Amino acid sequence: MLVRKIFCLIAVCWTSLCGPNTILAQDKIQSTKGTRLPRATPESQGVSTEAIIKFIRAADDQVKSMHSFMLLRHGKVVAEAWWSPESADKPHVLWSLSKSFTSTAVGLAVHERKLSIEDPVIGFFPDALPINPSENLKKMRVKDLLTMSTGHAEEPNVRSSQDWIKTFLAHPVEHQPGSFFRYNTPATFMQSAIVQKVTGQTVVEYLQSRLLDPLGIQPPRWDANPQGISLGGYGLYLTTEDIAKFGQLYLQKGTWESQQLIPREWIEQATGKQVSNGQNAASDWNQGYGFQFWRCRHNAYRGDGKDGQFCVVLPDQDAVVVMTANTTNMQSQLNLVWDHLLDGFKTGELPEDNKNRGILEKLSRELKASR
Questions:
Q1: Cis-peptide, bond into residue 65, ω within 30° of zero
Q2: How far apart are CA 324 and CA 85, in angstroms?
Q3: pLDDT tens digit string along 209-249?
Q4: Which sequence spans correspond to the domains of the chain?
């Protein structure tokens, strides 16, 4: 009994010293497999059902074609819709929205002291280096991979190669790393390769116990390259609600059911503006870039992927918007959130709107992806 009391006292002191943001041993993280997010009426969470109807109608009319939509406010799902034949239980390709999950794995590996964002990239792959590495290649850090500022003028073409790591490292680095933003999907693959090198697990394996299990997300499909490394920059498939859980976790600064799954400091770095990426104030692709997250207008941030895959986090509104689609105009799709949903967020509860709720339910049942 005395030994047990001493152990408990040590545990309390350790938690106090490390602070609430410290991830403790992995066996302390509780799994919530199979759980769903709580549901609530829009008005009970201060959201106008009328605004949601306007958004869905506009999306149905203007996006060719929408696949799914989910809106969370104060941690609760207040609206959800799938355009047939898409459905709630059908995993959807994330394309580059996968990148935000890969950077999360990097953040967890950093927290576990398996690497640092200041580590040079070449240090992880000494056997894959070109004969005479350039000075710029030697300067490339993990942070430069995260911020899409590797120094490449063009993306390395790794997909036609049997050894993606060697091909990436052999590609010319024209600019000083950290000084030049260039969207670079192979740089995300390299993050995945680094996580696998330092942990002995693929990114998806590494995230399963640390992130996906606690969120109640079943083991997903994540495609790999010929060397068995998760693609990192794309290739992940998740349901709409899985994406929503990920966005809500980030909105909550890494806390999930009293567990700190991701360090708060990492989330602030990852979702803050790390590098500039344009000057167009009207473009959500020119608001700055973090660690595989885009900054948005309206003090929001997002992960996104080709053809209209979005996980948009709105801290000022305490909301998350998830959309999947197959469209060629992602800015137009994102504009619908600003044009129709923003004004629908109110400070307190609203009177229940049974009439419009019936309209919303009927509308959601009749949505079709192919028109």
A1: yes
A2: 13
A3: 999 999 999 999 999 999 999 999 999 999 999 999 999 99
A4: 37-90+240-371, 93-238
